[in-house]
Task: structure prediction
Amino acid sequence: MSAPLPAIVDAALIGAGPAGCSAASWLAQLGLSVALIERAPRLCAGLEALDFAQDWLLGEPGLRLSQLGGRYAGHLGRQPAVHLRTATELQHLDWSASDGWSLQLHGAEGAQRLQAKSLLLATGLTPRHPGPLYPAQGRGGRVLDALELTARRATLPRGRVLLLGGGDNAVENALYLRAQGHQVTIWSRSDWRAQSHLVQQLEADAAIARRPALPLPSAVEADGESVRVRSKAFGEEAFDHVAVLLGYEPEPSAWLLVADALQRAGVTAPSQPFRDEPRFTPLGLFVAGDASGRQHPCVQTALGDGVVAAKQIEAFLRPLRESQPPPALRRSNRQVIHIAGLRFGANLGVLDFEREGPQPIQVDAEVNLGAQVIVSRDADIGHVLDYRRVRAIIIDECTAEHTDLLEALLGKLCTRLMRLAGVVGVRIKVTKLEIFPDCQVAISAEAGQW
Ligand SMILES: Cc1cc2nc3c(=O)[nH]c(=O)nc-3n(C[C@H](O)[C@H](O)[C@H](O)COP(=O)(O)OP(=O)(O)OC[C@H]3O[C@@H](n4cnc5c(N)ncnc54)[C@H](O)[C@@H]3O)c2cc1C
Result:
């Protein structure tokens, strides 16, 4: 039984592939508390079946992906600062501006709740399953996606194999299966999109039936004996196995929960998680690895993304000055309270007639509340500064006692307004309206952050 999860962590990470493990390791070394949630029974479980040599791996050419996954998992397992939960499902999520992310988890330890100041999605990709080509049921182990083919290709009984797709994965599998003695057909709706060295090998192998730039079949149906494939170009054909290798999309399970949570909180979310989506950072939401829609998804880029995400989370959690919002927030969505043309009598000035009684003044003030989290529902605004309070403070400060110098009055006003919770800057202008018959006189001051 693993140690209980703390009630609240700095960062909850969903998905323990290379991106999630890399981010967890960095966050822990940056001194932040981390919970890493993985639904598979082991860390980096997705790499276990990928027995490909990584000849481009700088410093360790030839290492296999499965070996790398084992190393990442072993390293992370030795970091006590990371709270690991494997075989654990994320069941529900809530977000609020004041509390951050609330997670409901379900795993071997039963139901658990966790509060997190930030959330990282590192949930990877899932193969696309277009309906007519990859039926939801009745595939009989004969219609396979990329993951299923990878797991079975070394032991697939020799026969007729149809590969649907024209990218690296389809062409590499065509060459591999041909070398294993299968009768291979590869069929792509566009021209080959694989790397040129793979395409050259494909073009050179006359034993592989090639169907580039042809509309894909209209139906694929499996029974116990074979797979029937129907198309306009070739009528009805039979194969022993069909592999649907038509790319990947972000794994939707966790993202759907995030999108629901944001919708309930009145925050507009995009339809997919994206890297560097500007709306995410103010919410304490980050995405790394394949899930982020990066251009070249692979293990090395996923590891790098984990590092970048960890640094972004650190910047979000550790503002330069504790009283200020984090830098990302300071850059956008600044809110300012404006008090314009506030007129009343004040005891102010060093001239004789000024000492006789109050004189009319006008105060104009701007109170900078800094960056605020973007919310679109009244109920979620949380801690707002009441502008009636700002008005009352100005009148109170100007009328409480006689002040000789306008400059001193400005100083008192700035100091008092800057003390209000959430205020990061004040601009104030005091005008003596009747000091001279032919003009008004005003002095303004600026304090704090603008
Ligand atoms: C057939 C194949 C061959 C490949 N070959 C290579 C190669 O040779 N070299 C290379 O560098 N890359 C290769 N890749 C790509 C590589 O595997 C990925 O780019 C890399 O694993 C991405 O890491 P990641 O952490 O972003 O996502 P993943 O490794 O996909 O990890 C995501 C993790 O999130 C978990 N998860 C998802 N949803 C939830 C949820 N709701 N709750 C909890 N956990 C969740 C998943 O179980 C998974 O463990 C290959 C991929 C495939 C499919």
